[in-house]
Amino acid sequence: MTESCWNCWNCWTATGGSGPPPYPNSSPSRSPPGAPPIRRGREFAAVLARSLARHRVLCDLLSAQAGVLEHNVSADVAACYKRAALENVAALAALARQYLPELGGHADRFCAPAVMVSGAVWTHARPSAAMLAAYDADPSLAALRMDFTTTLEDMLTTLVAGTLASAQE
């Protein structure tokens, strides 16, 4: 299963999450050249969130990686899995630097948490039948119900803003 997760991730990053043409050759940004980094970062976060929303199997695997896929495996499998994770974060960081060169060497600091947040948001945005019934029965709980794409976009925008700020220090 760990191999399946990173094979899905490899395919996603190789195409920039969109399929042909490769993401690196297309622009996620509608901003004019020279737009402020935070604006380009917001647009980059939106593209990532929308792209991941279209890749349900990848999101399922990301949401299961720490709690399921990394357990009950040998040390060799775990090491191989983590090496693949590092490669995939580096591939996403290279994409991020194309559109946000201001991230520089800090791009990995954005991308590694982006992967973790994506899995966590996916899990919380897909509540069980019991949680859906609880939301319906108690309107005060409605604030806890979340849309995957909107929530992930907000989280990734916050991550990119914080990473941009750290990169400027």
Descriptive labels:
single chain; 169 residues; mainly alpha; 7 helices; globular
SSE topology sketch:
Blueprint: H1 2-14, H2 37-53, H3 56-69, H4 75-99, H5 107-124, H6 129-137, H7 148-167
What does this structure look like?
The structure is a single chain. The longest helix is centred in the middle third of the chain and has 25 residues, at 75-99. With 169 residues, this protein is mainly alpha-helical. The N and C termini lie far apart (40 Å). Helix content is 69%, strand content 0%. Helix 1 runs parallel beside helix 4 (75-99). The protein has helices at residues 2-14, 37-53, 56-69, 75-99, 107-124, 129-137, 148-167.
